[in-house]
Amino acid sequence: MSPAHSAESPDVAAAPKPAPRTVLDASDISRALIRIAHEILERNRGADPVVLLGIPTRGVGLARRVSDRIAAVEGQSVPTGSLDVTMYRDDIRLKPPRGLEHTDIPPGGIDGKVVVLVDDVLFSGRTIRAALDAIGDIGRPRAVQLAVLVDRGHRELPIRADYVGKNLPTSLVERVTVHLTEYDGADAVLIADKTGTGAKA
């Protein structure tokens, strides 16, 4: 007669990790960006004062898309660039070294302009704090506004987005991943447990 299994015996297979769940598909993302573009125009009474600065990586792609949608409405392009915040982050000494991204300020600069920062996910707010410091070294805009595709909450600083594609309540054990065709081959926003296959907090 075989001895009974110990309570600690691994006779039950571990449960599979849940797959990431899609919370925004390509159509949802497109509608969100159209809405953000219209809200920017309404709030700023047109496109004339606006400069869009995307935060690398995916914030840059989103900024270009918002610019395209504004141009479709206004019939004029909006100055669009990118703003690397790597050297302004307050956790730079706490994480492994990372390569610098590209900063590209439009030829007209940002002095006296309404700068709209564009990012994919708003989380703790520390990336945006770093972006504000970076802007201060570049020029003096009339105002700075923030547009994000997803606001997932859990702020650590008093920062709030002016334009939000989707408010997405999350827990700290979840990851939100934004995929864009320009970088990932498809558009989607996914959410998954951090022990799963998510790629960005």
TrEMBL record:
This is Bifunctional protein PyrR. Residues 25-166 form the Phosphoribosyltransferase domain. GO terms for biological process: regulation of DNA-templated transcription. The keyword Glycosyltransferase applies. GO terms for molecular function: uracil phosphoribosyltransferase activity. Keywords: Glycosyltransferase, Transcription, Transcription regulation, Transferase. Transmembrane segments: none annotated. The keyword Transcription regulation applies.
